[in-house]
């Protein structure tokens, strides 16, 4: 069987299994472009649609159960039915939705966030990681008086801060300087070249959407040294990586950024983002100060997210729980890679975040795939979905708190079956 035939077999099986998702897609296309309002969720011939979730399981419109190894692209750390968080949301619903005022919940959550991450003295909330990164970069530009931002090819910092080999057509128009991820010497040279005009360096300490590729300690240490020397701000995008250790990945690598951006699970599974950092920098957003920067957002302090976030951090996400999730992820990644390697594939990542690559090494998202590599990626995705496992089409996998060892063993067995059948 050729690679193309193998992909066709799994895609046809997928289409036959999911007629209700197909019908839903056809209906949605009549009122949304392509039947879609979140581009990453689309794939051909139609996206799989779910109707409910419980713990680390999802049920499709056609009634099939899937083990959820996508975890809402890392936002679903708590799973779909964590009782403590659901109770907190129900309680908040009973007290009113939108006050149009400050409330007593936001300082409680702010205290938890500031106490958790070493690089955050003061914090402000947003509605998403995208907004958090936008506001952090605005702060960098405003406080340094410079316009250029160094980012990395393959980096993803939100829908309007996306970089392949260059900015995407919808990326906001800062003056971008692009470096290759983990190219220590090349990046150092770029920072020195643009030193007097560089406002910030923005980096994920491990690429998330870009392929779950950790940055080397050498790169991160160099960035801290060189940004300090030239007066630029070092911004860690920890929207995804903050879940890799109780103090975020910054606490593991031992590099303290000037600003940190957050999001995803820290809102308890609801819409959330945050940015924070050095007190002297964040003071620019203090509205009691003359000439303060303006930061708005109707739902920045909404009571549902504040309540869910507080409940999660105070009552669920102990250091031991988070360490256990990441240890389970490390075991899963090792087991998957043991299956992948003989087939010429690779699984990269750290802790509870990982990606299956259609090559014997990590491929950063900015690197073009060959036709065969595209086919392999599709084959792995549809092969695992057809065997009852939900993951990102790009091969990204996350482990959540309710994910069990048995579920991980099942995923490894399914992957082994796909590899044995087609490779």
Summarize the structure.
The chain is 40% helix and 16% strand. It is α/β, with parallel strands linked by helices. The chain has two domains: 83-316, Aspartate Aminotransferase, domain 2 (3-Layer(aba) Sandwich), CATH 3.40.640; 319-401 and 418-423, Aspartate Aminotransferase, domain 1 (Alpha-Beta Complex), CATH 3.90.1150.10.
Q: How many helices?
A: 13
Q: What fold name stands as the CATH topology of the largest domain?
A: Aspartate Aminotransferase, domain 2
- Secondary structural class: alpha/beta
The end-to-end distance, rounded to whole angstroms, is 10 Å
What is the C-level CATH assignment of the largest domain? Alpha Beta
Overall structural domain count: 2
Report the CATH superfamily of the largest domain. Answer: Type I PLP-dependent aspartate aminotransferase-like (Major domain)
Number of strands: 16
Gross CATH architecture of the largest domain = 3-Layer(aba) Sandwich
Question: Looking at the structure, what is the overall shape?
Answer: globular
H/E element order:
HHEEEHHEHEEHEEEHEHEEHHHEEHEEH
Radius of gyration: 22 Å
Question: Mean pLDDT, rounded to whole units?
Answer: 97
Q: Uncertain regions: pLDDT < 50 for 5+ in a row? A: none
Physical arrangement of strands within the biggest beta sheet: 4-12-11-10-7-5-6
Instruction: Bin the strand percentage.
Output: 15-25%
Biggest sheet statistics: 7 strands, mixed
The helix content, as a percent range, equals 25-40%
């Amino acid at each position: 069987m050729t690679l193309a035939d193998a992909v066709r077999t799994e895609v046809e099986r997928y289409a036959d299994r999911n007629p209700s998702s197909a019908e839903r897609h056809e209906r949605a296309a009549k009122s949304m472009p392509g039947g879609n309002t979140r581009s990453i969720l689309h794939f051909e011939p139609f996206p799989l649609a779910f109707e409910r979730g419980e713990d680390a399981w999802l049920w499709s419109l056609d009634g099939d159960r899937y083990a959820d190894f996508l975890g809402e692209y890392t936002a679903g750390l708590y799973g779909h039915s964590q009782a403590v968080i659901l109770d907190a949301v129900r309680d908040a619903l009973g007290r009113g939705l939108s006050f149009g005022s400050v409330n007593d919940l936001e300082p409680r959550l702010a205290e938890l966030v500031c106490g958790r991450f070493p690089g955050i003295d003061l914090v402000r909330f947003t509605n998403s990681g995208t907004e958090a990164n936008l506001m952090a970069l605005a702060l960098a530009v405003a406080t340094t008086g410079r316009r250029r931002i160094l980012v990395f090819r393959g980096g993803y910092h939100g829908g309007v801060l996306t970089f392949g080999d260059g900015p995407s057509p919808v990326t906001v128009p800062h003056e971008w300087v692009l470096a290759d991820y983990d190219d220590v010497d090349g990046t150092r040279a770029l920072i020195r070249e643009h030193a007097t005009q560089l406002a910030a360096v923005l980096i994920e300490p491990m690429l998330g959407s870009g392929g779950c590729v950790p940055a080397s300690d050498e790169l991160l240490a160099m960035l801290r040294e060189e940004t300090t020397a030239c007066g630029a701000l070092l911004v860690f995008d920890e929207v995804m990586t903050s879940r890799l250790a109780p103090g975020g990945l910054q606490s593991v690598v031992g590099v303290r950024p000037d600003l940190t951006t957050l999001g995803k699970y820290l809102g308890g599974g609801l819409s959330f983002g945050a940015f924070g950092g050095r007190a002297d920098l964040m003071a620019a957003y203090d509205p009691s100060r003359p000439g303060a920067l303006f930061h708005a957002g109707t739902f920045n302090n909404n009571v549902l997210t504040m309540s869910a976030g507080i409940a999660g951090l105070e009552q669920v996400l102990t250091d031991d729980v988070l360490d256990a999730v990441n240890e389970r992820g490390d075991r899963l990644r090792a087991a998957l890679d043991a299956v992948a390697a003989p087939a010429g594939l690779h699984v990269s990542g750290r802790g509870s975040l990982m990606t299956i690559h259609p090559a014997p090494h990590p491929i950063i998202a900015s690197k073009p795939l060959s036709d065969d590599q595209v086919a392999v990626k599709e084959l792995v995705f549809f092969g695992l979905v057809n065997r009852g496992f939900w993951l990102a089409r790009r091969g990204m996998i996350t482990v959540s708190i309710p994910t069990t060892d048995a579920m991980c063993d099942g995923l490894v067995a399914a992957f082994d079956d796909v590899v044995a059948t087609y490779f």
